[in-house]
Structures are given as C-alpha cells and as structure tokens.
Amino acid sequence: EYETWNTDFADVMGNIPVAQVKKRHAYDYAKHLAESGFANKTIASRVSKVTGLLKYCEQRGIIDTNPFVNLDLAGYGRPKQEWLPFERSEMEAIFAQNIPAQERLLLSMLCATGARLDEIALLKWEQVVNRGEITYLELREAGKIKNQNSKRMVPLHPVLELPIRGKGRLFDYTRDRDGKASTSAGRYLRPHLEIIHHPRKVVHSFRGAFKDMMRDAGCPEDVHDWITGHGAGDVNKGYGRGPSLAVRYEWITKLDLGFLG
Predict the structure, then answer these.
(1) Straight-line distance from the first to the last Cα atom of the chain, in angstroms, rounded to the nearest whole number
(2) What whole-number distance in Å separates Cα of residue 173 and Cα of residue 184?
(3) CA torsion through residues 97, 100, 101, 107, sign
(4) Model confidence over 193-218: pLDDT tens digits?
(5) Dihedral of CA 95/101/107/112: which sign?
(6) How far, in whole angstroms, is CA 79 from its chain's centroid?
(7) Average pLDDT over residues 3-27
(8) Which of 57, 136, 169, 177 is least surrounded, with the fewest CB atoms within 10 Å of its CB?
(9) Is the sign of the CA dihedral 125, 108, 84, 191 positive or negative?
(10) What residues have CB less than 8 Å from 53, skipping those under 6 apart?
(11) pTM to 2 decimals?
C-alpha cells in the first residue's frame, strides 16, 4: 500500500524531490482524490501513506521536517457512509435471479460467512481447508487483510457447494494496483444487486445481514465477532484464545440459507 499510493502521489503531483514537497501538495492531492469521487476516509488513508514516507525521510535526515504533519482533511471527499444490512426478503430476491456461476458463488460465500469482499474475491484454494467434517477459510496468513483482527478461521456452511478443487485463486477477478480485487469483483456483482433500490444497500450489506442472521439464531456476540473479524483475531492473542473452530461451525450451521438455492 505504501508503494502503491506513494507512486500514485508522484504520478498525480509530479515526481518532485522529497525536499521540495510542501504541505499544499497534500491538500492538492486530497482535492484530486475528492474530485475523483473518493470518500474522506479513503483520502485520509492514502495521504497517510505519503506522510509515512516523509516521516521516514525526516528520521534519517533526508529532510528537516515532515511537511504533512497536522493536516486537516476533514472537508475533502464524501463523508463516511453507514451501509444498511439486507433484509431476508431482499436476499431471496437477489438469489432468485439468473446469476452467472462465479458471481453466484461469490455472493453466496459473502452471505454465508460475513467476510469482506476482498477476503473472498482473492481466496486461493490453499486457503480452503478441511478438518474432519468442517471446511473453513484459513485467513490467518491472508495477504490483503484490513487489520490483525481479520486474521482468523471462518467455517463454511455445509449448504455451500464449492467447485472442484483447483490450483491458484478461486475467482479470476482482476487485481488493482494495490493488489486488491474488490473493484473488479464489485463491477461484476453490481448488476445483480440493482434489484434492491436503496442507496445504502451494497455488496457490504451482506456483512451486516450475516451479523443479523447470527443474532437471530441466538449466537453469542463474541462468537460471530470472531467469525467476521471484529474480535481479537486468531493471531493477536495466540491460538485457542477465542471460540474454537468447532463452536464457530456449530453456530454457522444454525443459519437457514435456503434462499441461496
């Protein structure tokens, strides 16, 4: 990410020497990103990657001071949007459509795991692990994760039918410059979600819907937090500190996912 967004900054602002970078360049870059349609949170994250490089240069005496300290980026880009979860009737309508096999599998896995789009779209077959009767996603060593809490094991509901095991990735969505596939995958999924006419219901709404289904099934909050990556993570506090894989699987199986077809 640091390499990607520092390269992008150089492409947009001109590949100027670090000693000539001024605070105004941060605001000019933020303005460019805002005009490109990015949200404020995304803009702040990308500018922070440039800030990190400048901090590195300051620490090593390449520049005297980091010009990107004490930035105020509050007015740049769209405000944070809170997405709403899908209702069961809406998911029934989505899956009742004629959806290509790859997109149907991706949507089904999002719905049945509560995982983030990139976590599924970038999956490799080696991350689909069988342990006895349990098939689970091994995300503890995933390359593109949001944070340490996201390093976890996610059981798959037995109703999910995976294709014949292969090699490499499960899906062939194109990677972006930052190595993620959410933009490409989202482009393929979007037409199948247009049946739901609500500006705050998008692909990410499956994550909220999963949490609601787990609550309705009576699953303890801490258990489904570990499944979705809102818990402490299976690496942060060592193995065995959270609910076991068997316990997670037991609660996953309680979900009624008949609408997946």
Answers:
(1) 38
(2) 6
(3) negative
(4) 999 999 889 999 999 999 999 999 99
(5) positive
(6) 19
(7) 93
(8) 177
(9) positive
(10) 2, 6, 18
(11) 0.73
Q: How far apart, in whole angstroms, are the C-alpha atoms of residue 107 and residue 113? A: 10
Distance, in Å, from the CA atom of 162 to the CA atom of 30, rounded to the nearest integer, reads 42
- What pLDDT shows up at residue 150? 80
Alpha carbon of residue 65 to chain centroid? 34
Structure confidence at residue 36 as a pLDDT band (50, 70, 90):
confident
Better pLDDT: 235 or 94: 94
Residues in the chain, overall count: 261
The tokens for 162 are: 């995976």
Element (H, E) at 154: strand 153-155
pLDDT category, 233, cuts 50, 70, 90? low
User: Residue 142's pLDDT band (boundaries 50, 70, 90)?
Assistant: low
Q: Which residues pair with 72 in a beta bridge?
A: none
User: In Å, how far are 73, 104, 191, 210 from 197, measured between CA atoms?
Assistant: 32, 20, 12, 20
Run of H or E including 135: strand 134-138
Amino acid residing at 88:
R
Q: What is the CA radius of gyration of the chain?
A: 21
Angle of CA points 48, 49, 50, to nearest 5°: 90
d(CA 106, CA 121): 7
pLDDT at 176: 84
Cβ burial, residue 188 (10 Å; 0-12/13-18/19+)? middle
